[in-house]
Amino acid sequence: MALTRSFRETVVKHVREDPAFLVALVEEAARNVMDGDIETALGQIRDVVNATMGFDALAAETKIPKTSLMRMLSDTGNPRAGNLSAILKAVGRSAGVRISVHAEPDLQHA
Questions:
Q1: CA quadruple 89, 55, 63, 94: dihedral sign
Q2: Which of 5, 44, 56, 73 could form a disulfide with 29 if both were Cys (CB 3.0 to 4.6 A apart)?
Q3: What pTM was estimated for this model as a whole?
């Protein structure tokens, strides 16, 4: 029987080997937050943290205890907006991505 790699292991491998993939994953996580798909975003952020800076460094950067961060980014996590913002900023800095929001008018509903 052939050995298979888990999806998360594959993502972590790509994050570590391909800087463009890392940037795209961080950007997609931020988009998912803005689109309200928090569950997907938390998984993406968790993958980036595990593949790059780790939870100890994230805790030092955000001033949020490691255990709280791990709970927030779990499958059942529910971080407050302020904590999620701090996490995204820290992960973005670590990945070399500056996260900002640019509002565009919705002319169809104006």
A1: negative
A2: 44
A3: 0.84
Residue in the block written with tokens 């391909």: 18
- The per-residue pLDDT for 110 is 58
Where b means 16+ CB within 10 Å and e means fewer, 23-47 reads eebbeebbebbeeeeeeebbbbbbb
- Using DSSP's 3-state secondary structure scheme, residue 109 falls into helix
Instruction: Identify the DSSP state of 74.
Output: S
Burial (CB < 10 A; 0-12, 13-18, 19+), residue 93, is middle
Predicted pLDDT of residue 98: 86
Checking if the pLDDT of 3 tops 60, the result is no
Q: What pLDDT is stored for residue 16 in this prediction?
A: 85
| Residue 93: partners with Cβ closer than 8 Å, 6 or more residues away | 61
41 three-state secondary structure = helix
